[in-house]
Specification:
The chain is α/β, with parallel strands linked by helices. It is built from 4 helices and 11 strands, in the order E-H-E-E-E-E-E-H-H-E-E-E-E-H-E. Strands 7-8-9-10-6-2-1-11 form an 8-stranded mixed beta sheet, sandwiched between helices. Strands 4-3-5 form a 3-stranded mixed beta sheet, with no helix packed on it. Strand 8 (121-126) and strand 9 (129-139) form a beta hairpin. The two termini are 19 Å apart.
Length: 214
């Protein structure tokens, strides 16, 4: 699994690059994991209802082709895009979601933060508060989009929406739970856990869009 660290990026170029990469990849194209920290943005999934965007203010709202409702991306949050060939891995969408959630739960466990999943509400929760959201798309047996994991960010924009379509849903982050504030510390563990869940060996690659996506 080639791992690419893109640093801070605006949302749309990375989204379109994911689409291009997924459409262009072949049967032998290695799986990839893209890690990025996005500029502030609200994204509304395919089933997203505009009324869940309460007061976006100066933060743009982008309608995208992933599953799920509305969420927020911003500095201090790890966004990870596992670009996986599910047919080659011999797993379905439900198993994909379960394994991503487990990787996040195990990452949090490294800092003695007890987290869990909820039936019918994809993502990872600590108590009643959501710490990581999932929004995925599968096309021709290949996954794109991914997870958003709150580390050390301004949580105020979550009050401008009904996160994931749930009014009043509490949101939390690692920093407030005694975890680290540096994204890289968490990314290092998350990469290992995602590799373990999918039986893939992470290998650092150039932080440039693959030729297939360029």
């Amino acid at each position: 699994m080639l791992v690419r660290h893109f640093g801070r990026q605006s949302y749309e170029p990375v989204w379109h690059a994911m689409q291009s990469f997924t459409d262009a990849r072949g049967a032998d194209t290695p799986d990839e994991l893209w890690l990025v920290e996005h500029d502030p943005v609200f994204t509304l999934g395919q089933a997203g209802r505009p009324e869940h965007v309460l007061a976006p203010g100066d933060i743009p709202v982008i309608h995208v082709d992933r599953g799920g409702q509305v969420t927020y991306h911003g500095p201090g949050q790890i966004v990870a895009y596992p670009l996986l060939d599910l047919r080659r891995l011999k797993i379905g969408v439900r198993e994909l979601v379960h394994r991503i959630e487990q990787a996040i739960i195990d990452t949090l466990g490294g800092w003695n933060i007890v987290a869990a999943r909820r039936e019918g509400a994809p993502g990872v929760y600590v108590g009643e508060a959501k710490i990581a959201a999932l929004g995925l798309r599968v096309r021709r047996g290949r996954s794109f989009h991914g997870l958003a994991f709150n580390i050390a960010m301004d949580l105020e924009p979550f009050h401008r929406i009904n996160p994931c379509g749930y009014a009043g849903l509490q949101v939390t982050q690692m920093l407030d739970l005694g975890g680290p504030s540096r994204l890289g510390d968490v990314e290092d563990v998350l990469i290992v856990e995602l590799g373990r869940q999918f039986g893939l060996s992470p290998q650092d690659a150039e932080p440039a869009l693959p030729r297939a996506a360029a």
